Amino acid sequence: MQFIVPSYDVGSLERTHHVVSVRQKALFPAFGIHPWYVTDDTDVDSLVVPYLSNHGAIAVGEIGLDLAPGCPPMEWQMPVFKRQLTLADERGLPVIIHCRKAHDQLYSILKGYGEHLQGVMHSYSGSTELMFKFLDLGFFVAFSGSVTRRTARKYHTNAREVPVDRLLLETDAPSIATETTVASLVEPKHMVEIAEKVAELKGISYQEICAHSTRNARLLFNLPPSPQP
Q1: pLDDT in tens, 75-104
Q2: How far is CA 60 from CA 38, 88, 103, 185, in A?
Q3: Cβ atoms of residues 193 and 199 within 8 Å
Q4: Is 229 within the bounds of a domain?
Q5: pLDDT tens-digit readout, 169-202
Q6: Main-chain dihedrals φ then ψ at residue 182, nearest 5 degrees
Q7: CATH number at residue 211
Q8: Residues 6, 37: contact at Cβ < 8 Å?
Q9: What is the residue range of 109's domain?
Q10: Strand ranges (E), 131-181
Q11: Cα(97)–Cα(119) distance, rounded to whole angstroms?
């Protein structure tokens, strides 16, 4: 099995590097600063660039925009996000994007890159209409435990509508609950529950949805073949 391990704050940059260095053929790092942890003096070049340059990053992330209450102000988030997008573009790396309540602003920024920049809309929570706009830019759309909830109609619609060659599956452990498990207890094994639900919504088999997601992840993140057990 293989896992992508993204950083999210200053301290997790080094922790991500350490964890991945122990299992180099199974774990792959993404380095970035999440919008929740941006400050008024976050210096992306001094914090993130050394990890992108020296530690085998396969993506820049988790990065993004978040307009939910309690998040850092947008005037702090925006320059940090844009700088990290530029770093990804310069290095030919995909981005892992978090977005809440800022999908219109996000789309306005990303369309400026055309198809030069690729990535995934992680645990996508926007509308179906905007989802197709992100797909048109070349982005993938990932579904997490949110899609397993019985009342999550928007997530169900998006999962039904996304093309199979552009979907990804994730847990976002330990931040997002599934229908059966509280967020703090979610771990990689809960990918099964997520895959089963998306397969049900799309009317295809569990094996098919796993094959599509795995192939898409390898394509987007340029992952090597999984080592044999």
Answers
A1: 999 999 999 999 999 999 999 999 999 999
A2: 15, 6, 19, 26
A3: no
A4: no
A5: 999 988 999 999 999 999 999 999 999 999 999 9
A6: -65, 155
A7: 3.20.20.140
A8: no
A9: 1-60+67-91+100-115
A10: 140-143, 167-169
A11: 7
